[in-house]
Amino acid sequence: MTKIKNDAPGMRGDRSRNDNEELRQKRSDTHIGTIEQKYNIDLNVRSDMHLGTYLEKNDIASLNDLVNNNKK
C-alpha cells in the first residue's frame, strides 16, 4: 500500500513511498516544464525535454540535487 506523507526534513510537497517506506523516485519521463512550474525554477531548456535526459546530460544525480542547485 502506498502512503503519502510529508515527513522528511526540508521536503517540499507530498511524495508517495514505496512498500519499503523509501520515497518514490520521480519518473524520468516527466517534462522539464512540469518541474520548472512546480519548483519555480528556469532551466533554460525546452519544456518538453524529459527529466531523465536533463539529469543525464548535466550529470545530476537526482531531482533533489537539481532543485537545490537552482534555488533563487
Provide a descriptive summary of the structure in words.
- The chain has 72 residues and is mainly α.
- Helix content is 31%, strand content 6%.
- The protein is built from three helices and two strands; from the N terminus they run E-E-H-H-H.
- It has helices spanning 32-39, 51-57, 63-69, and strands spanning 4-5, 15-16.
- It has a two-stranded antiparallel ribbon.
- The termini are far apart.
SSE arrangement:
Blueprint: E1 4-5, E2 15-16, H1 32-39, H2 51-57, H3 63-69
Antiparallel strand pairs: 1-2
Pick out the low-confidence regions: none
Main β-sheet, spatial strand arrangement: 1-2
Radius of gyration: 13 Å
What helical percentage do the residues reach?
A: 25-40%
The N- to C-terminal Cα distance equals 36 Å
Report the biggest beta sheet as strand number plus sense, adding barrel if it closes. Answer: 2 strands, antiparallel
> Secondary-structure element sequence?
EEHHH
Strand tally: 2
By DSSP (H or I, 4+ residues per run), the number of helices equals 3
Structural class: mainly alpha
Beta-strand proportion: 5-15%
Overall pLDDT confidence: 79
Kindly list the characteristics that best describe this protein.
single chain; mainly alpha; 72 residues; two-stranded antiparallel sheet
In short:
The chain is mainly alpha-helical. It has helices at about 30-40, 50-55, 65-70; strands at about 5, 15.
